[in-house]
Amino acid sequence: IVPFFDKEQMLSVFNRIKPMDLVMFSRQLALLLDSGTDIVTSLELLQRQVTNQNLKRIIGQVVADIRGGSSLSAAMKKHPRAFSQLYYRAMAAGEQSGNLDVVLRQMANHLERSAQTEKKIKAALMYPMIIVIVAIVVVGLLVYFVLPNFTDLYRSMGTDLPFLPSLLIAFSDFTEQYGLYILIGIIGAFGGIYAYIRTEEGRYRWHKFMLNAPVIGRINLLNSLSRCCRTMSLLFRVGVPLPEIVSVAIYSATNKIMSEALTGVQGELLRGEGLSRPMSKRKIFLPLMVQMTSVGEETGNLDQTLSTVAQSYETEAEDRTNTAVDMIQPILTGIIGAVVAFIAVSLITAMYSIYGEF
């Protein structure tokens, strides 16, 4: 019998496991294993301490699977909402090498850096978003509540108004008469675009646009490359074979253009062409990444060179994001000021016109 609603699914939706929850879990598990505590006891101790109910439930299921003879990585693989492919692949490498505590600390550092980078980007974009929302609310209040009252007043006077007030009144009448249809049209347009983006072709075109768009294109590319470098650096450090590393990077890529490029690199890598040479044939991989990958292959320090590239790209992406936000803020402020000034000047001009006739 299928239940009306799945309690576990509801927990996963409303009690999402945050990156910092996994960071704390990984660090504490590493500490317990380093102190000599066995894996089952360590997980049971953490289960009692974890405050996130979804993670607590998943840890309990992982413990049950391990007691049933499963490995830690295989048990984690069953819970992709909590443990990504990168996470359980790294755990599998740690189990094989016997350095599970070391791998857990490295994974915690990786998750923490990723969370901090995402947090910085969100914080930088928060102010422009607030400005846009406030602007929409202010203009909406003026158009739908203030202007109609003035329009009725001016019409009752029966006077000829100057161009600006006449234009404003015409706009007010238009929005009052067709505003609902315009709103439905806008919602329909966005719905259609969203539906198209959900298709295979639409998603490909959207991801390509996001990498080539003015200003934000370079930022998105840098973020995608830094994420790829971090993933490959971590897995190489814990001893995962290079073809498997590229497989995880392909799966972890959020952009289809990046995923397609990595798939091509993987094919040539399996034919014995290495990693940097296939990358150099694809423009999406910037020169610094290709050069440092080549150095890493020659010296055997691919984890360190890729980590350096990731840090460099993250810094550049953060600087470009801050610069873009600094540019957007005065532009948005100017647009809002211009709209409010136009409405105010139009109303004042109309009032003076009316007074002049008496």
Commentary on this structure:
The protein is mainly alpha-helical. It has helices at residues 7-14, 19-34, 39-49, 53-67, 72-77, 85-97, 100-157, 163-198, 200-212, 216-238, 242-252, 256-270, 276-280, 287-299, 302-356. Helix 6 runs parallel beside helix 10 (216-238) and helix 7 (100-157) packs parallel to helix 15 (302-356). The chain starts with 6 loop residues before the first helix and ends with a helix.
Topology record:
Blueprint: H1 7-14, H2 19-34, H3 39-49, H4 53-67, H5 72-77, H6 85-97, H7 100-157, H8 163-198, H9 200-212, H10 216-238, H11 242-252, H12 256-270, H13 276-280, H14 287-299, H15 302-356
Brief descriptors of the model:
single chain; disordered N terminus; 15 helices; mainly alpha; 358 residues
- Mean pLDDT over the full residue set: 85
Largest sheet: none
Span between N and C termini? 81 Å
In DSSP terms (H or I, runs of 4 or more residues), the helix count works out at 15
Helix content: over 70%
Calculate Rg over CA atoms. 28 Å
Strand content is under 5%
List the uncertain runs. Answer: 1-5
How many extended strands? Answer: 0
**Overall 3D geometry?**
elongated
SSE run: HHHHHHHHHHHHHHH
Q: Structural class per helix/strand content? A: mainly alpha
In short:
Helix content is 83%, strand content 0%. By secondary structure, the protein is mainly α. The chain starts with 6 loop residues before the first helix and ends with a helix.
